[in-house]
Amino acid sequence: METTLSGSDAFCDLTKKAAKNLAARFGTPIYLFSKQALLERYRELKNVLQRHYPRSQIAYPYKTNPLRGLVTLLHREGAWAEVASEYEYALSKDLSVPGDQIVYNGPHKPDHMLAQAALDGACINVDHFDELARLESVARQIGKILPVGIRIHIVNDAESWHRFGFSWVNGDALEVAGWIHHSPHLRLAGVHAHIGTNVRNLRRFTRLGQVLNEFARTVYQRFGIVMDWINVGGGLAGISPCWSETDILRHPAPDIEAYVMSILSVLVKELPHEGIMPQIFFESGRTLLEPAGALLTQVVGTRKTSQNGNAYIINGGLNALPTARKYRHPIRAFNVNNGACVTSAIYGPLCLQADTLSIDALLPKLKIDDLLLFDGVGAYNVSRAIPFIQLRPGAVLWCGGNKAEWLRLPETLEYNQELERIPAHCMKP
To answer: pLDDT tens for residues 214-225?
Structure first.
């Protein structure tokens, strides 16, 4: 018997036999990524965008999951790179992404990276005024008038992010637009906004589209500037409920058509242009990767909770699944005997009180070596995993059945210690 608690799409064809074979071949814990699920979700988004606005472009945010195999797969499908650090920029170049297909965001861009991005022709979105002043200095030094985008935040409330970029509400964004307009070294070419993460309320995306449209029309009316690009960011939700959502085990993947139209239906209305409409970027990450990823683990111990309920210790913990602190990831049990499902706790292997992955999972009685699959973990786990008490797991690209290949080998002690040094005076004389 195998128990599916969530109706998982990406791994619904992963049988008990195939799961056992994967565990035997690659070990556990191990990240699994469904090639089919990732490509289907990406192609659905791409097709909807092309149908409604042909000058749309997906820029995949490397922070979501930087595994080279997955990133290469998405670039092969036509995705650009969205990077937010020197490391991510270097990774995109190492993967042979053309400079003019890189969107460079983030609050920390060193001068040498601004210069490289400028020479590469990357799409630079400035986060704050100090960075803008440094970029003007870079432009002066290299002798080019640089096209630049500015990041704005659209509302100042508890839901929407407002620690990045310039405020639209208090007028900072328009003040900066005017400053760039009068700079002899910079040209305002674009605008970028990102409202948050795991957003399911499409009305928030509609508001995003309205504000970006208003910004584009206002800078045209005041300064005669026509946007080359408008970047709507990402933020669309995945499948995992938050812990506060106690009435649902798994969300359906958000409807792509409804999401796209919630933005485009208002964004492109009477948008200023000079023959060619602006390019519109979508930085979709979570909604593509989260449903395509899982963590396959094994039960290594059983016990009772303080309330005499069932509790299971597994070999994958918060060091490998940091998003489990916020999200109730759907769980699927393999190799189990027939029996009623009861509320159970799941603990990770870390010597840490907080290493609790679930306190109320509905599971049949499990035994040592039974397999548990945590679904909806493809986003922000590989990129945020840490070698805390346990080393980081490997990752596998699952192509159906027993077909799978390594994406990343499991971390070893030798790899983990490679950069460390012991000063001579710390050793025994």
So the answer is: 999 999 999 999
